[in-house]
Amino acid sequence: MKVAVLDFGKTNSKLFVFGQDGRILDERRTQPKWIDQAGFSVLDEASLHDWALGAVTDAAESHGVEGVTVSGHGCTFALVDDKALTHAILDYEQEPPTEIAARIDRRIPDFAETFSPRLPLGFNYGRHMLWLQEVDPDAFAGASSILGYPQYWSWRLGGRAVSEVSYLGCHSHLWAPRRRDFSSLVDAQGWRGRMPAFERAGAVIGERRLGGASRPIAIHNGVHDSNAALHTYRRQALGSLTVVSTGTWVVVLNPDCPLDALDRERDMLVNVDVDGGPVPTIRFMGGREFAVISGGWQGEIPQGSVQQALDADIMALPSFAPGGPMPDHPGRLVGREPDAGERAAAALLYVAMMIDLCLDLIHSKNTVIVDGGLNTGGLLAGLLAQLRLGQAFLQGASLEGSATGAAALAFESLGRDFAAEPPGPAHAARFNGLAAYRDAWRDRVAGHDSATKAAGGAR
Q1: pTM of the predicted model as reported, rounded to 2 decimal places
Q2: CB 3.0–4.6 Å: which of 60, 111, 139, 148 could bond 87 by disulfide?
Q3: CATH: 3.40.50.300, 3.30.420.40, 3.40.605.10, 3.30.1330.60. Which one for 2-221?
């Protein structure tokens, strides 16, 4: 049996064909387009759909895939009637107008209920739902279902409209993890009746015949990408784990962290796993920040450039994107002018410094798995293992943990084995001066934080 996984990221969208042995047999890639429409930044849904349908059809004809599922980025919702969207899908990287934000933010439930911190832009998609409901009430009135982003694509490909707990529970303001039920916001706004019945991620929710395939393929319920990565490793019985899932976002998930350790001011929150369990989480927009700091560097970074950046104390200080554990810090690069390789090295060192800080904040003392595209060549995992010598580190066997988890869920829903390759050891790097660099980086961050607070008090 083979399954196609559409892995919809904010920056890149991909299709993978998985066999039951966990190997990726084929892949295709594109980039979603975000366009201006009636004062909003919205997804060019038609273009992405055409690419996705073509890719899945080709996978069905070329590889005989028997099912398709979706792994999707967070912070995004879709309003649909029986046939189509009632409003274009909003880009989460836009802030409601000030006067509207002041009104809608008064309706947001307390952190103690939802464990969703109050974040900017649409990082809590319940906030964007309130915004859209205010400016386009007809879009809500005409919608029969409110869908999470992966569920929208499963529906668009031919499945039933369903809800899924890992996506609804992802810092949306819509879910109360302790009650395992919708939040007070959902009932206050009258949205519960348009939340479809729940199905587990991976469940078959329809079928569709594509192209010249001899039989229809199954449509499986989609899943939130970081929770899919968590599932990839939990199912392998590896013991107590912290998962560091890297992409546009770096998401650090530690189920062992106590809930009362979460600090709403530092982008700490509760995610919800595919079975409804709470997963303490901290995150920052590491992939986006790496691209900004590095000037768009692609590929592996020479280890010599890393040592040069360390020796010269070339440092990137947070933050270069909204959200994260230090949201009020303007990002800056300090030290002498770097060459291109040193700049990329400083960007990766920045990601490592931030993850190291996040691991402290999320009380991580268990085994850490580093997963995703920022660990190309294993350098990021090696840096972290050197910084935290008392902690065990593993790295994903591929860079596609989210897609692998989505595939595993699809196979599991049919009672089929799925033998994904287990993660391998991440060996500590051996750079000179890394610990001293980390100490200096933290001192500079702490000093900047004190200065920022003092300036705020002076005003």
Answers
A1: 0.88
A2: 139
A3: 3.30.420.40
